[in-house]
Structures are given as C-alpha cells and as structure tokens.
C-alpha cells in the first residue's frame, strides 16, 4: 500500500469512469498497454483483483467500486490542496497573527491590515492588543507571526526592525502656543501635561530634557497611552508631548471635528518602536510582505499630522 502512486489512482479512476482501457488511454494521453500495466500494478500493490477479465474487457468487482469512492476523495483533496497552496504562494490565502502595543493597535494597525487584505478576501487576521512587554514575549515564544512594540532589548528569540519616530506637541487649537510653528521646552515651562507613567522611558527622557533647559516639567495626568490624554487636551486642561502614531490616530478618528492640533517639538524626543518577527520560525510570504507594508505605512500614516 505504501507504494501506491497518484498516477495509479488517476488511471484507475479513468478506467472506471470510461468503462474501457482504450477510452481511458485516450483520455490520459497514454498507450493502452501502459494503462493496462498501471492497473495490474495497482492490483498487485493492493493484493486485490479489482477487475474480472472477460473477452478483453475489464469488469469491475465490488472492491473496485469501493476503491473508486476513496480515489475520488483522495484526488479531489489533492486538487484542492494544490489550489490552496497556489493561493498561498500568490498571497491570496492564509492567516496572519499579529500582536500590537496599544498606541498602534487602536487605529494604525487596523488601517495597515485593512489596506493589506482589501484585495485578499481569503486572508484571515488575528490581532491582539497587549503591552509592549507581552508583545515581545509572544513573539519570542513564536505564538504570533508579527509584533509591533516599543523597541526591546536585544534577544536571540526574535528579529528587530527599529522604527524611530519624532515626538510632537498636542495643544488645544485655542491655546496661545497653537500659533507657534515649533514648540520647545521653554514654551511648556510649568504647563500642565498629559504624559505616560513616570517610569516610562519617554517620560524620563522628557523630564531630563526639561531639566537641561532649566524649566519645570509638570505631568498633571499620568496615563498608559497618549490617546487617552487627548481628551484632557480637548478640555483645555493640559498639553501633551506624544508619539506621532498616537497623534495621527487622533486625527484619523476625529477628522476635521477635533479641537487638538499638533506642532513639531524640539529638541527631538525620539519614540523608538520596532517590528518584531520570530527568530527561530520561518516567516510565511504573507507575513513577510505584511511586515514590509508596516514599515512603509508608518511614514505615510504620520506624514500629515502637523497643521503647519
């Protein structure tokens, strides 16, 4: 049984469907002796007599009809599998598992996914939002195909493509500073701010930058993400130095109805993000192309956040 071939099954099915070795040979573009030899070989492999030979004709035994049913199922499954793999090769079918940090998961990543699958109706996507630390652990353990997080420390268990973004300042459109084309630490001296929690690297960097410029850093609202802070800016309770993906997400969500505007901030506060992929698991072509799309989409997504 281990030596059965697809050609034997195809030949057997052609003989059963046509009822004739001659017709089957024409259908398969083979010689009649070749078809007969294939049937004899199939019977030897199975240890069964599938046909009675009567006056040059093959008369199927009951076992032949049973085998025909199984053969149809096998060959149809093979055809379907071949079609599916062709679709996978052409990036029109498959599944992507994405883990993403909150700042990018609310608007940016869904935007990238929507563009990617628009012309791929058979591609399925699973996206989970977790903290950067958990995203990194999931990619390290190969539970997900692609991760988007804050830049991690080097680990052997995943590959890292760094993405560096420059921070911007969020202000209410009626704030006096909104008329300035560039915001500096001196402009925000003792101005209430919405910021990430104290131990976050961005908050620490901002605090040190304010100290270098001899101005008061005043984080009135400490949060898990900047998007939450934009509501306080809307209510004219504070300003916010934030990453541009959060800023672009706000603008995408609010459109022309938002009261928050964004201005460049200097000196630069860098927000280091990264695309992560498992180091010990080959990437599918679908995931490989999607990872490239993320990098390209970042630049496009944040390109129009400044109103000047």
TrEMBL record:
Gene3D superfamilies associated with the record: 3.40.190.290, Winged helix-like DNA-binding domain superfamily/Winged helix DNA-binding domain
The keyword Transcription regulation belongs to this UniProt entry's keyword annotation: yes
Keywords on record: DNA-binding, Transcription, Transcription regulation
PROSITE patterns cross-referenced by the UniProt entry: HTH_LYSR (PS50931)
GO molecular function terms noted in the UniProt entry: DNA-binding transcription factor activity; sequence-specific DNA binding
Residues in HTH lysR-type domain copies: 4-61
Biological process per Gene Ontology, one example term: positive regulation of gene expression
Family: Belongs to the LysR transcriptional regulatory family.
Full protein name: LysR substrate-binding domain-containing protein
